[in-house]
Amino acid sequence: MAGNRSRVAVLKPLKPVVGILMGSDSDFSLVGKAAEVLGEFGVSCEVGVISAHRTPDKAAVYARDAAKRGLKVIIAAAGGAAHLAGSIAANTTLPVIGIPVEGGALHGLDALLATVQMPAGIPVATVALGSAGPANAAILAVQILALSNSVLAAKLKRHKQELKRKLRLATRACASPSGKGQRQELSLDSFDEFAVPKVWLKYWQ
């Protein structure tokens, strides 16, 4: 109709609130899981490669400017002499989550100790070695953001409920009759006050 104008919605990219750093691009196959999990919660992030040893000035500038650019949490992953998370934490007041990357002669033990053993006053929240590390780093970042975001808090609650649902399904599968013997299932209700789902025990006679 004359005089009517069609309106086209233009979606602007979300401003990143989580920064994900890695010491080498070879770490992306592992660390990329953190970005994937953040995306599942609708949390925008930026990903970059910065080395605490090869580009220390760049690491310091990134950390100092992070809050001004709108970041709320920084995730830093590194292996070996893993100083990236610590160097970032030393130059920002934002919460920093460290992911130790497994590998090398010590199979990640050096990275774990370098990341977790921070001096008093400069904390780095360190997650696990292996595939659980990036996933937990992302979840922890979402938990931090959810303190001031009710939408994220609701998503986290649903996430926890989904974990319980999957556990119940796995428990039923384990409790299904198989092989020989007589099965007995016991329900433990003593932890109900902590909202822990029922745990099923079985043993074979």
List the helices and strands and how they pair.
Elements lengths: L17 E5 L5 H13 L4 E5 L6 H11 L6 E7 L4 H6 L6 E6 L7 H8 L8 E2 L5 H15 L3 H26 L7 E6 L10 E6 L1
Parallel strand pairs: 1-2, 1-3, 3-4, 4-5
Antiparallel strand pairs: 6-7
Helix pairs in contact: 1-5, 5-6
What do these coordinates show?
By secondary structure, the protein is an alpha/beta fold. It has 2 domains: 18-148, Rossmann fold (3-Layer(aba) Sandwich); 158-204, no CATH class. 39% of the residues lie in helices and 18% in strands. The protein contains 6 helices and 7 strands. It has helices at 28-40, 56-66, 84-89, 109-116, 132-146, 150-175; strands at residues 18-22, 45-49, 73-79, 96-101, 125-126, 183-188, 199-204. The protein has a 5-stranded parallel beta sheet with strand order 2-1-3-4-5, sandwiched between helices. Strands 6-7 form a two-stranded antiparallel sheet. Strand 1, helix 1 (28-40) and strand 2 (45-49) form a beta-alpha-beta unit. Helix 1 packs parallel to helix 5 (132-146) and helix 5 (132-146) crosses helix 6. The radius of gyration is 22 Å and the shape is globular. The model is unreliable at 179-205 (pLDDT under 50).
What is the C-level CATH assignment of the largest domain? Alpha Beta
Largest sheet: 5 strands, parallel
Quaternary structure type: single chain
CATH topology of the largest domain: Rossmann fold
Element pattern in H and E: EHEHEHEHEHHEE
Distance between the termini: 80 Å
Q: Unreliable runs, pLDDT <50, ≥5 residues?
A: 179-205
What is the rounded Rg? 22 Å
The CATH level-2 architecture of the largest domain is identified as 3-Layer(aba) Sandwich
Q: Tell me roughly what share of residues is in helical segments.
A: 25-40%
Structure class? alpha/beta
Approximate shape: globular
How would you write the strand order of the largest sheet? Answer: 2-1-3-4-5
